Amino acid sequence: MKIGVLALQGSFAEHRAVLAALGVESAEVRLPNHLDRLDGLIIPGGESTTMGKLAVAYGLMDPLREFGARKPIWGTCAGAILLSKDARREQPLLGLMDIRVERNAFGPQAASFEADLDCPAVCNGSGPFRAVFIRAPVIEHAGSGVEVLARLEDGRIVAARQGRWLATSFHPELTGDARFHRYFIGLI
Ligand code: GLN
Fold this sequence. Notes:
By secondary structure, the protein is of the alpha/beta class. It is built from 6 helices and 12 strands. Strand 1 (about 1-5), helix 1 (about 10-20) and strand 2 form a beta-alpha-beta unit. The N and C termini lie close together (about 10 Å).
């Protein structure tokens, strides 16, 4: 198995480190042909407008959509925004997942925080997942085909899956807890 990590910008190296610790081969994706022979793709956190503009400049938007039509994609934070159909403003989106996101839903960078999440489908009774939110989005609407995987205590959705696509508002690559990575590998 080989998992690609979109490496235009953001925390791609951290995702690759988690995959390496799990013994999974990974590759950095910057150009369309880098998607060849991959089994899945992670779109990391970072800044979604910047990442989208770079993806347009490198001719990656349609190849990423075609990849997502066949293979699993997981978007974390800015990556979740790129996966969405609607971010309530003009910016390049892949438009794959039937979710509407609110960017920067918790305010500025300084309002970043951590929270323990209950995520039964992912954590399987192994305890809550400590999640790091950095200028994070929330999923403010999820379509009927979307399974909600985790919510904050106030009910806002922060992890969801639609078939082979996974979106998380937070950064599971930063805490040394590989349960979401294992869950994604399970989708592959
Ligand atoms: N605030 C960023 C955006 O809207 C996402 C932040 C992140 O990926 N940690 O694109």
